[in-house]
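hey can u check if this looks right to u? its 627 residues, i copy pasted from the old doc so theres a chance i mangled smth
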Amino acid sequence: MRSSPLLVDADLAKTLPLLAIPLSGLALRRIRLVGLALCAVVVPTGIWEAAFRSAAVEPRPALHALSLPGDRKVAIVRSEASDRCIGAAEFGRHADHWLDLVRKGGYQAETIGDAQLASGLDAYAAVILPSVVCLGDPARAELERYLRAGGGVVATWALGARGGDGIWRGYDFLQTLTGAVRFELGRNDAPWFVSVRSASPLGAGLPGGTRVQVTSLERLEATALDADAFWSDAGLRPRVPALPADYQAAVVRKQLGEGRLVWLGFHENSAVTGEADRASAILLNGLAWAAGRPLVAVEPWPAPFTRSTMVAVDVSEFPDRARRLALELAQARVPATFFIDPGLAGDGELVRELRGAGELAIKWQHANEGGRARHAFDRIRMDWLRLVLWSRTFIWVRGVRPFGDTLTGPETGFLAEAGVRYFLAAGGVDSVLPSARSVRRAPSGWTDEGSIVGLGRSSDDDLHLSPLGLQGLDAEWIVQRLTDDSESVGRLGGLYVLSLHTQGLGGPEYLPALRAILARIAQSQSWVARGGDIAGWWSSRSRLGLSLTSPSPSALRIEVTNGANRPIENAVLAVYPGVMRGTPKARVSPEGPPPQMAVDAESGRLRLSLPRLEPGRRATLEITFVR
């Protein structure tokens, strides 16, 4: 449906006042001439692109962890006793799901029954027990012996809660293996989500920092200190806010003697449609760790950081408060991104003050109705707005925050066509990590590709810390609440977005709370960066390519290729060496200084900083384990 002339005129009337820029002096007259020249190029280009050159936006493939399955087989237990006890026709599908997944992952696998489970497991690199509820005493003894001798076990749900005869025996066996304090049946109503930490073998690569929604009616919650994932809400916060995440463990990883155990409190085939890829990555990562196979993944953040923080300031009203916020942020040495309302873009003094304290971006609302004509008109409005800001700062704005903090697919396409580099949104967030998307345009047989990065806000902004708003809240409570949100995201290794408003914490009555939280951010170990810096890093990181080989039993060779059109620095590899023993020695080729390496004694993870990689270049790292 076409937009009416009345609607177009009304929107244009809102935009034109922004163009009334008072300029004086020779320098400013030159700026006006340059601006007019830009108008002559930018506006026709925008109209042509909006009308004829639509963009296709597609998620860029996630960087999975790489592993080497090895030659030893994996056993998948199809328990006859559990089948009889449960009595459900679909129960056997658990083993079938594992068998298909493991083979796709490159492992050799076979199914075994209760008798073989009890008689000997040493021939296998790992044993998978999918919902094996019924375990006789011989099987329990063999599993414990196998684990302590160096075997690997992956178990789901209520392992051994009943004996081989089906009689209830409780969770004692599962507690012995996992070290958990207790297990409880999941009692919360659907939907159910599992959030995965990045700094763990199971969270290496794709699943780290994300949540997976499961439909498993049979769920267990564990209280354990080795939780790699926990039961959460849709915003990736612990399901019960009053309890720590470790009291709501959904995945437990445990070293038991020389062996390794991974327990999952849900059925392996219960991920909802669209999230099976993440669930499969969790399962395969868990299997690789349990089997002692090496795992390699690109860490989410540049060295030396394991988490990130962005301060996003919504400047929609109260310009004086915006100036105060800019001053406070500058004094605290906390970089920020200011999302300015179009109605305030004509205030040159305000714009320059905000630019001096951080990065400028815009708030924007795109009309989905009206077809390509309305699309082209909105593009004109956005380019005019960006030209106004450019005339004040000489910066072409590339960041957008949509009104309402939600974004539809067509709106994302519009931003991509307009050359927007990143957007900040809160609706539909299923990860505390950014998401890079490829932008392709293909008119008349030729194509080009760019990127647009989505920065997701999973925590409440300052206006929604309480159902009743900010008024009356104690400063200490506000600081503690924001700190808890930051720590919740940090546990997952994600991006915490502190969202401030001039009509919120920008008010003078909240100055003590604001200063306290900024001081904590400034002193944190997080990478505190502007939206453009985070988006640039994430876009380049998403174009890294990995390959993994093992030239000898005591060495790993990792090749890293930079497929971006810009250099990338400070990228970090997480390497879990598996059963490889000895002191790790790393070198890089082409010849260069040895990469910086840090070893996490608890998890065995190696963090190796990559050298600067130019576009299209490749670096090879060799890690040798010397006994």
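The first strand starts at residue 56 and ends at 59.
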